[in-house]
Write a structure and sequence with these properties.
The protein is an all-alpha fold and 203 residues long. The protein has a single domain, classed as Hypothetical protein af1432 (Orthogonal Bundle). It has twelve helices and no strands. α2 runs antiparallel to α3 and α6 runs antiparallel to α7. The N and C termini lie far apart (34 Å). Bound molecules: fe (ii) ion. Fe (ii) ion binds next to α2.
């Protein structure tokens, strides 16, 4: 896997190219905070801290490569294709899986990313064996805001409210997302005997 130094240079290059054309305020803070949360969780789980940090730092790179609203792309798939093209399979996987704590979903739940894109993602996800690194990034991403102001949420309910408003997600789909988020948190807490909120200083 690329080093942290390479990951920072890579995302910085994309960031500088994208910044003049797209409002990406909060992007850097989000990536750094997700990377930090992932490292803290990985440490508590006895997993590779550096690897989790780099994965967290790179998981949203697709947002820098393509403007998903204008170009009707899905950043998870864009990031997956990019990292695949440079032979970084583990990072490619993280880019795709970070949006889907459960692969047993209806495409309508992610309609804002384009049904066609989600169908494509689903076809790839079926053949991916998710690891606890995938789960750590999914959970970290659920706890970190994107606007560069709040950074870490008070809890996952707050995050769900943000998703509901920002992406115009139907309440019944938000309920499914929330249920999956809680399941994800409990999975890591039970397996590794830890308290996620306590580890991250969330009250
Ligand atoms: Fe993210």
């Amino acid at each position: 896997m690329i080093t942290l130094r390479e990951a920072i240079r890579l995302t910085k290059d994309f960031y500088n190219k994208t910044k003049p054309f797209k409002d990406i305020s909060g992007y850097e803070e989000h990536e750094i905070a997700v990377g930090a949360c992932a490292s803290i969780l990985a440490s508590a789980c006895g997993l590779d801290v550096m690897k989790a940090g780099i994965m967290g730092y790179c998981h949203d790179i697709g947002k820098m490569i393509s403007d998903e609203k204008k170009e009707r792309t899905f950043h998870g798939l864009t990031g997956y294709q990019y990292f695949k093209s440079i032979g970084e399979d583990e990072l490619a996987q993280i880019c795709l899986t970070h949006t889907f704590p459960s692969i047993d979903f209806k495409s309508e739940e992610y309609a804002s990313y384009g049904i066609e894109n989600i169908e494509k993602a689903k076809d790839i996800l079926i053949n991916i064996k998710q690891t606890d690194y995938d789960k750590i990034i999914q959970l970290s991403d659920l706890l970190v805001h994107f606007n560069g102001k709040t950074v870490i949420y008070k809890n996952m309910k707050d995050r769900m409210l943000y998703i509901e408003n920002e992406y115009n997600v139907k309440p019944q789909h938000i309920r499914v997302k929330y249920k999956n988020a809680i399941k994800l948190k409990r999975y890591l807490e039970n397996k590794y005997n830890c308290n996620v909120y306590k580890l991250l200083g969330i009250k």
